[in-house]
Write a structure and sequence with these properties.
With about 80 residues, the chain is mainly β. Helix content is about 5%, strand content about 50%. Strands 1-2-3 form a 3-stranded antiparallel beta sheet, with no helix packed on it. A hairpin with a 2-residue loop joins strand 1 and strand 2. It is rod-shaped. The model has no long low-confidence stretch (mean pLDDT about 90).
């Protein structure tokens, strides 16, 4: 997702009137297991890369991180 608005790299966002929000990319994998009709297990992994410049448009301040989430659902 492109989170930038009206900016040019190397030019301050105050000059262009825009925002350096960055470029976000997410890759995710999910797994679900249903051992019976009333219990579910879910697990999800995501790799996130946010490519973002500082307000002056000169320094990379983005992040890379991974998330792992799990969930158990019981219906009664």
């Amino acid at each position: 997702m492109n989170l930038n608005s009206n900016v040019t790299p190397g030019i301050s966002q105050t000059v262009t009137g825009g925002i350096y929000g960055g470029l976000q990319k997410i890759v995710g994998v999910g797994l679900g297991w249903y051992p019976n009709d009333w219990i579910r297990f879910y697990m999800q992994f995501q790799y996130v890369n946010v490519d973002e410049l500082n307000p002056a448009g000169t320094t990379q301040i983005g992040q890379q991180f991974e998330t792992l989430a799990g969930r158990v659902q019981i219906a009664f």
